[in-house]
Amino acid sequence: MDIFALLVLLLSCRIYAGGAQIKLSPETLTVLRGDEARFTCSTANTQWAAMVWLLNGTVALTISRLHGVLRSSNLNVTAEEGPTSKGDSWVFVLRNTERLHQGQVTCDIQDIDRKTANLFVQEKGSVKVFGDNKLAFRGQSVLFECQAAGWYPQPTLQWRVDDKKVSQGEYNISSEESEKSLFTVTSNLSVMAAKSSHVNCLASVSALPTPLMSSVHLTVVAEVVEEGDDCTIPLAVTASLSALLLLLLLCICAVLCYRQRRQAKPSPQETIRFDQSVIGRSSVAEATGGTVNLGYSSEGPTDADYNELIMETRSQMDFVTFNKVPDLVSSRSQSLHSDSQAQVYLAEENAKNIRRITTV
To answer: What is the pTM of this model?
Structure first.
């Protein structure tokens, strides 16, 4: 009986000593889908012959102490010798991780012992704040909606306003899982418009070093913010002044255009006066055989008096008798030594005619 107990004790110590000679790190690894997963297995027992790597119970790769990495049908896995080992430490590399690789990774050193680690594969989705930048009056409540879609596992979602974290009690969160075990998280945040701010929505999982962020800008009008020497001009006042200046400019342009058109276009009375003057002078010119001088302007009576004068002139012209004066030509002396008698000859057709008109 004592001999049997001693044998069991010796066997237990041997198994413990052998197990203590295997080290697998890390014991838990979380990566994003598509990233590499690396596990290191080492042993202090130099008598090992083969190291077998199993992924969820299926042999993925075999390493021989004498021949190194043996050929594998799984092209997505490989192994690298540890940098500080003498062939007793190997790094198992899973190049392109997928959701189906999540589970247990086992390092089995034949006839010595085995160690198992856990692999978790997460998936990064997208995050978006719906709508564009918003404009609000001070004191108005503004609602923002954010959605993080296509994540595994369910992501952590949070809000920040001007890089200040918003308490979870100020916004709500709802989530749903799709057929592919991907999660979509939706959150609504109500912000009281006090000053212009940047509103950020962040989503992350543990394997993501930096959260994904979507941002919009909230512009608050009718505000005056003074921080030190920095002063913000109220947007509403600026807009009002701009509108007034524009309206004043349009009024000035309209007045100038109207005055220019008034100066360029004669008045109806001036047009009638000009027409009557031209008609009167044309009548006189026709009667006398002369031409009308359009540049002549009279400063005499206007309107009714002027019309009466035109009518009298026309009536008097009916009784005018024109005495035709014979054409005269003064002749020059034929000679310096001739008599000083003057002779009058009838002018030829090309001589200058002199007429005198007498109006009774």
So the answer is: 0.55
